[in-house]
Amino acid sequence: MPTAAIVVIALLLCAAGLLTHAGWRRRKLLARLREQWGAVLPARSMDDDRVSEAWQEFCGGDQDGNGIDHRTWTDLDLDGVHATIDRTQTALGRQILYWRMRSGIAWIDSPALEALTARFTHDAGLRETVGVQLATAGRSLGFGLWVIVRPELIRVRWWYWSFPLLAFAMLASVAIVPFEPRAVLAVVALLVVNMAVRMATAWQIPGLLAPMRQMGPLIHAAERLSRTVSAGYEGPTPMLEEVKRLRPLRRIAQWVSQDALVSGEVLAAGWEYLNLLFVLDANALLLSARYLRQLGPVLGRVAQWVGDVDVALSVASLRAEPRAWSIPSWSKVTRTRVLGMWHPLVPSPVPNDVDLCAGMGTVITGANMSGKSTYLRTVGIAAVLARALNTCPAASWEGRSFRIRSLIGRNDDLATGRSYYQVEVDGVVGLLNDAREDLSTLFLLDEILRGTNTIERLAAGEAVLRALLADHGGASPHVVIVATHDGELVSMLEGLYAPFHFRETIGPDGLSFDYRRRVGPASTRTAIALLDSTGAPTEVVEAARARAEQLDAAPSRIVRHGGGAD
């Protein structure tokens, strides 16, 4: 058989093998995507994709005060919520999901995003094609990318222009050596200079080359996704036009990725020697700097769009779960009604309702462990996800959206030497400052000012809770929900704060709770009964009951609306 025929057959066999492997991989990805669609999945680790770091690089944190501050994010355990609801296929998708949850930008402000999510919900072929394309792009797509979309971070010093000259001089010297052995001295001298250059630029090159290697896969994924998503639509595709502008960066990405493709100790060592001889990475940085400065914003928009497509697919899968996820019905009414809301992190959560009336508040009483703090967090998480993803863990949400501010979990700040009570007061002052703004805000407070004595706590607590709903040239746009053991606050805030409570009962096994919100203040007195049921001495129990009856009969020392004590 002729040699040419053997070569052709070998090439055909290789091509057939590659096609078979590609088909097998696609079928495997499709099977996984179909299995996970609409399924309740375990929480993912948040450490692998540097999500919060990407948040800082992407937008520098919350700049306009509309997003979620660190305290509220921690109070509501939104890291845990993010990990639980995440169905994305790429690091870029996880980063954009985090950004959307924390930035305060409403999902409904991007109608195309909701339209795409609806298409994924109803078009299985589209969502599977997009899912395979995202999964093929790789879990690491977008890892560390945001550094290079900021032009101010791409710094080129005047002496960087010596890099091409050094590379050319080294190439010329190496070429001359066979004809003039003394040129070896020039090679050695240039090698020393090049090593010095490499050391001088070492602080910037590794931090930029790794993100630059993400450009090629990102541009390729964006191109494929834009063609898939726009299929069936006439006219130019805006995102595809943006991707075309990134062609210079694609060529650069191919160059800087060469060393990443080298495997094996021998090849890696060889590439490193070439790098030292010709300062390859330094030249890559110099040649790409101009394009990165010009096209960094375009690259950022393309990356965000790819992440948004991933997030839209994730949200569509979330809505398909058997759990009660709902699409909010938005309006500008003063009363927002949420029915059957549940906590995504609680196994077998008990659904509850909430009314959020602008200019009004809610005071919740009940025993420890009855569900007050979980209820606050459930309301906050529902409000965050409703606004950020247009998807709410509830049977229904009808009304407006809110910025969220909370003061739930507090501890001593040992790093700054601040006590628990100082942290508490700082948090309260921060909420009062937020309340001066006109942006509709939902305030969530648990045991306000619990670090001080009863009289001061009640007096200051009433003053703060009234101030949070002070007029803003008319009715306040804010809503406040406060959980407390201080039942006196119910009467002190009557007419402004509606009372609700969580109930507990004592049985043979001790306290039990049904975790359901009920109208009115708590009326049970279980502390003494619990002492009795767990075997406390009879004289202690009787003394406690007698003192409780005396305190109930005594005139209140609290001035109902005066904010102080008599």
Gyration radius, rounded: 31 Å
CA distance, first residue to last residue: 111 Å
**CATH class category name of the largest domain:** Alpha Beta
**Strand pairing plus helix content: what structural class?**
alpha/beta
Offer a quick outline of the entry:
The protein has 566 residues and is of the alpha/beta class.
Ordered list of secondary-structure elements with their pairings:
Blueprint: H1 3-36, H2 51-59, H3 70-75, H4 78-85, H5 91-103, H6 111-122, H7 124-137, H8 162-176, H9 183-200, H10 205-212, H11 215-229, H12 238-244, H13 247-256, H14 258-261, H15 265-278, H16 280-319, E1 325-326, E2 329-330, E3 335-341, E4 352-357, E5 360-365, H17 372-389, E6 392-393, E7 396-399, E8 403-407, H18 420-435, E9 441-446, H19 454-467, E10 479-483, H20 488-492, E11 497-507, E12 510-519, H21 526-533, H22 538-553
Parallel strand pairs: 2-7, 5-10, 5-11, 8-9, 9-10
Antiparallel strand pairs: 1-6, 3-4, 3-7, 11-12
Helix pairs in contact: 1-7, 2-5, 5-16, 5-17, 6-16, 7-11, 8-9, 11-12, 11-16, 13-16, 21-22
